[in-house]
Specification:
Blueprint (H helix, E strand, L loop, with lengths): L1 H5 L3 H16 L1 H26 L2 E3 L6 E3 L6 E4 L1 E4 L3 H11 L2 H18 L3 E4 L11 E8 L23 E7 L1
Antiparallel strand pairs: 1-2, 3-4, 5-7, 6-7
The structure holds zinc ion (ZN) (2 copies).
The site of one zinc ion has 8 residues, from loops.
Length: 172
């Protein structure tokens, strides 16, 4: 096992030699890389300038949006436009740990309620939720009982039917 670790992966080796060939033996590629780097640098400058003007970019679809519209981009270390939220959240939420997921989920839920008329809907166990009138929905921890399903007095939380989670439904 230890021996194996010291050996280089043949694919890595192949890739490594290809890269060094590109880097050292082909001047045409060298200048192409330099051009690409410059274009990328210029583009970053333009993106920064646009941010100064109040235009920011969605990290997913790369479209630009006006920051004056608070419902356009959701901000949680990366910017995500409203249209990209469903796909972005379903893939991100699976990769996050519980703490991070609940933090962003709470922020997302209140953003959707504030700017996109989203409603908190009780989750009902055993029945399939009716989503015909929903643009999309996310599951979120119940704010009222902090996900425990119980209220202070130990009674079943009436906001989530004691399930600890609710659905945040964005209407069409
Ligand atoms: Zn987007
Ligand atoms: Zn609750």
């Amino acid at each position: 096992m230890a021996e194996k670790r010291h050996k280089e992966d043949p694919v890595q080796q192949e890739l490594g030699s290809k890269l060094s060939q590109v880097g050292t033996h082909d001047p045409a590629n060298d200048s192409l890389f330099a051009t690409m780097a410059r274009v990328e640098h210029d583009l970053n400058d333009v993106t920064e300038a646009l941010a100064l003007l109040g235009v920011k970019r969605c990290s997913q679809c790369r479209k630009f949006f006006r920051c004056a519209d608070p419902g356009a981009l959701f901000d949680c270390s990366q910017l995500v436009c409203y249209g990209c939220i469903p796909d972005w959240w379903s893939s991100l939420s699976m990769r996050l740990g519980v703490t991070d997921r609940e933090r962003i989920e709470g922020k997302l839920a209140s953003w959707l309620r504030k700017h996109h008329r989203a409603e908190v809907v009780k989750a009902t166990s055993g029945t399939v939720p009716d989503i015909t009138n929903a643009e999309f929905q996310i599951a979120a921890r119940c704010q009222e009982c902090a996900g425990s399903g119980k209220l202070m007095e130990g009674e079943r939380c009436r906001f989530c039917n004691g399930l600890g989670t609710v659905r945040i439904v964005v209407p069409k």
